[in-house]
């Protein structure tokens, strides 16, 4: 009940016209990314998302706990709700590059062929992760064809409500970190298979569908490019953990300043390609999924400043920001922050850096970030008085 009260309050206090997907610097550029386990979006939830976020990525968990509803059905139902409210919102279909999520009807084909199509350990056992689910051996041509056909069929049949595909877990398939478990030959085969599959899906889906992948950031230490290589075949990339667990120590959650600084540079490099960049910032008190932490709304409102400042230091055209602490409708997606209503204006130049301290000026905001000490400030200026003219 409290969740619904907060949502209705946000809708009433912050009325906005339906957004479109054209990029601008008027306010902080935003996107949404979530699934709702218990059922379809309510009218209030759908309106909140469709009227505020030009890009909406729907997770595999849409209606996950509703008996008899597949991920395909849940995602498509949500997509229609959103499009009915705002036809200009761009809606994305979730599809995993590596983990066989059984909630999809399409994955039934993989499960029927699991003995032949699953990745195995050096001991011959099926390799499992994410709740014991098997994983795709992308070295197998028939599996790659099935994977591509499954997502392409959704796009062909539902292009009226699905504008893009969010492909998750590319590093898990190609980063090579599991070679000690699978063996070098299998790891190389999966890696090569992914690199063959991406151009296949690009060709099958066509240029009208936006392809975004998850898998870039400082945490990918094995790759010199930290995962940006896949932009060759994609229209955009997500940085999943800005100031989150990927840039923090496992034991005490303290920030690794060098990793945050590297993420800032990687976001810049990705944006310089002209592709879309989606950046998910996390609060310090809840830096990663499945870790204990505070999720009090007042704390979350206070802690948005640091990840938002890091985003603004890095952001260029076609960069979009999200701040919450998970992937469901219970993880902060429906909180509307005061910072989102403030005039931002275009950047007056790139960020300046002095050691671990970054500063950047926007038309209506001044941003300061100290990565070493995990501190940040955003000073919002009167929209009628651009920076430097007070």
Question: How would you characterize the overall build of this protein?
Answer:
This protein is α/β, with parallel strands linked by helices. The protein contains twelve helices and 14 strands. It has helices spanning 2-13, 43-52, 71-85, 107-112, 114-117, 141-157, 170-174, 179-182, 184-205, 257-272, 297-303, 305-314, and strands at residues 32-34, 55-58, 90-96, 128-129, 133-134, 164-168, 210-214, 236-242, 276-281, 319-323, 352-354, 357-361, 365-370, 375-380. Strand 12 (357-361) and strand 13 form a beta hairpin. The longest helix is centred in the middle third of the chain and has 22 residues, at 184-205. The radius of gyration is 21 Å and the shape is globular.
Task: Output the keywords.
390 residues, alpha/beta, eight-stranded parallel sheet, 12 helices, 17% strand
Give a nutshell description of this structure.
With 390 residues, the protein is an alpha/beta fold. The protein has 12 helices and 14 strands. The N and C termini lie far apart (45 Å).
Number of strands: 14
Question: What is the percentage of strand-forming residues?
Answer: 15-25%
Largest sheet: 8 strands, parallel
List the strand order in the largest sheet: 1-2-3-6-7-8-9-10
Structural class label: alpha/beta
The radius of gyration is: 21 Å
What fraction, in percent, of the residue positions are helical? 25-40%
Shape: globular
How many helices in DSSP terms?
Answer: 12
Mean pLDDT: 92
Q: Which ranges are low-confidence, i.e. pLDDT below 50, for 5 or more consecutive residues?
A: none
Order of helices and strands: HEHEHEHHEEHEHHHEEHEHHEEEEE
Termini Cα gap: 45 Å
